[in-house]
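TA notes, week 10

Several of you asked for a full example with nothing omitted. So below is the full record: structure tokens for the whole chain, then the designed sequence directly under it. When grading your own attempts, check the secondary structure regions first.
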């Protein structure tokens, strides 16, 4: 029920084997001071989420097919109590990145895509702390955010631009554990690295930027 407003945002999304894909970046804010220039860190490992069906947006029925539209399909399946299968296993990030770089000539993770994500995150949190300067008064406050990003191919057919879709305060760690259960080293170190960065001012430069 209720009214809805729809507008174009991402017309040519990057797809993983034909399905919509996004990635969640874990961002740590250790200080909101000075306003407009908060102290931010981001874990270098992200996790990708993929839709359950190939991307199609030609008819109203396709617009409302959540298995085609939603990238966080593991949430839908958990809600519907559907038995999981390999279609909805969260892919390991470096394997997904390698696949996308092979598929799209303009998708270069380290040289172009990741720096753009870093810039976007700085602009977002800079704008928020500027708008709410009272955040800077809380000197001991710390926060963890999940920043969800999709990717659009621009008009030249090559350039890839990150697009913000959502920011979540204190995101659930459950899907992250699922994504990294095949990466033993990361699974054992992730929570420690995030905790030490947030509360002990210790930054593991191999995993956190």
């Amino acid at each position: 029920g209720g009214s809805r407003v729809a507008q174009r945002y991402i017309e040519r999304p990057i797809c993983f084997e034909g399905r919509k894909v996004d990635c969640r970046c874990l961002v740590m804010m250790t200080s909101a001071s000075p306003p407009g220039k908060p102290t931010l860190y981001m874990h270098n490992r992200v996790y990708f989420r993929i839709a359950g069906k190939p991307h199609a947006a030609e008819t109203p029925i396709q617009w409302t097919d959540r298995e085609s539209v939603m990238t966080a399909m593991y949430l839908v399946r958990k809600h519907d109590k559907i038995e999981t299968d390999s279609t909805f296993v969260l892919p390991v990030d470096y394997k997904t990145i390698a696949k996308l770089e092979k598929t799209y000539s303009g998708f270069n993770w380290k040289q172009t895509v990741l720096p753009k994500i870093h810039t976007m995150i700085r602009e977002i949190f800079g704008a928020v702390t500027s708008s709410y300067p009272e955040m800077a008064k809380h000197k001991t406050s710390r926060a963890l955010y999940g920043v969800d990003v999709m990717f659009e191919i621009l008009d030249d057919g090559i350039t890839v631009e990150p697009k913000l879709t959502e920011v979540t305060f204190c995101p659930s760690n459950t899907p992250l554990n699922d994504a990294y259960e095949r990466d033993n080293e990361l699974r054992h170190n992730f929570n420690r690295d995030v905790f030490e960065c947030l509360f002990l001012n210790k930054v593991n430069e191999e995993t956190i930027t």
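The chain has seven helices and six strands. Use that as a sanity check on your answer.
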